[in-house]
TrEMBL record:
<protein>
    <recommendedName>
        <fullName>Cytochrome c domain-containing protein</fullName>
    </recommendedName>
</protein>
<keyword id="KW-0732">Signal</keyword>
<dbReference type="GO" id="GO:0020037">
    <property type="term" value="F:heme binding"/>
</dbReference>
<dbReference type="InterPro" id="IPR036909">
    <property type="entry name" value="Cyt_c-like_dom_sf"/>
</dbReference>
<feature type="signal peptide">
    <location>
        <begin position="1"/>
        <end position="19"/>
    </location>
</feature>
<dbReference type="GO" id="GO:0009055">
    <property type="term" value="F:electron transfer activity"/>
</dbReference>
Length: 94
């Protein structure tokens, strides 16, 4: 595999276990303000990826009531939500 192909493969599918060693994807840092360790709103690190994706989808569609998360979730498309969820899930519980 050429270095360029390896980079493309990583960028296209860099989720799951590999996500733990990488920095957060764009948008994930905005989550830690409310969802870091010790927060009253719940920690995201280590939660199941599918659970985070489902929550973001529900907030984005308006089917899950919220005061601010519905507006935040609308800022991410499905691919961005998936990357954010994979990264937080790979962090493991704190």
């Amino acid at each position: 595999m050429t270095p360029a192909l390896a980079l493309l493969t990583t960028l296209a599918g860099g989720t799951g276990a590999g996500a733990a060693g990488m920095g957060p994807p764009p948008g994930a840092s905005s989550c830690t303000g409310c969802h870091a360790e010790g927060s009253a709103t719940g920690v995201l690190a280590g939660r199941p990826e599918a659970e985070i994706v489902a929550a973001l989808d529900a907030f984005r569609s308006g089917t899950r009531p919220a005061t601010i998360m519905n507006r935040i979730a609308k800022g991410f498309d499905a691919q961005e939500s998936q990357a954010i969820a994979a990264w937080f899930a790979a962090q493991g519980p704190r």
